[in-house]
Design a protein that fits this description.
13% helix; 41% strand; binds zinc ion
């Protein structure tokens, strides 16, 4: 969905956005939705800039960094930032990414690509090490068993007999 800046009325507009299609971030990265995405986005013109507020709610499929199992990751994003036309940035301000307390994003000044904004926000919300549960027990490093589901009989050796022998030999 693309919104033309010229179509935003003076009082601003509110867009309700729903989708069930997976998100394509780029050629290699796709994010699979686990539940349909709902989003409300409000756009208001403010001196040539656009004040964007809104929320995104959905769940996506991620793989747990510890047990490698796929799980539903809840996405609950609140947005509040200024869209600034790229050509309207005074050179000195160009590197400053905040205007007051508000975050700033740049756009071409003509069209606002809602899909792109939503994709980007979701992509940025994904943790570096996603966990299916904060207490995920992970995999046994010896047999690979998923310790959330089963107990294996591996015992973590406090020392390895071979290295222990070597250590004694050196003494
Ligand atoms: Zn896990
Ligand atoms: Zn094991």
């Amino acid at each position: 969905m693309v919104i033309k800046v010229g179509d935003i009325p003076p009082e601003g507009m509110e867009i309700h956005f729903d989708r069930e299609k997976d998100l394509k971030i780029n050629e290699r990265t796709k994010i699979e939705l686990a539940t349909p995405l709902h989003s409300v986005i409000r756009l208001k013109r403010e001196q040539g800039k656009i004040h964007l507020t809104g929320e995104i709610h959905t769940a996506i499929w991620l793989s747990c960094a510890r047990c490698l199992e796929p799980f539903h990751y809840l996405v609950d994003i609140k947005m509040d930032y200024l869209l600034v036309p790229r050509d309207k940035i005074p050179k000195a301000e160009g590197l400053r990414l905040k205007s007051g307390d508000m975050e700033v994003e740049f756009f071409d000044g003509i069209e606002i690509d809602i899909d792109h904004i939503i994709n980007e926000q979701i992509f940025l919300s994904i943790p570096i090490k996603p966990l299916c549960h904060k207490d995920c027990a992970g995999l046994c490093p010896y047999c690979g068993a998923n310790l959330n589901k089963e107990r294996c009989n591996c015992k973590v050796p406090s020392f390895h007999p071979f290295y222990e022998a070597l250590r004694r030999l050196k003494q």
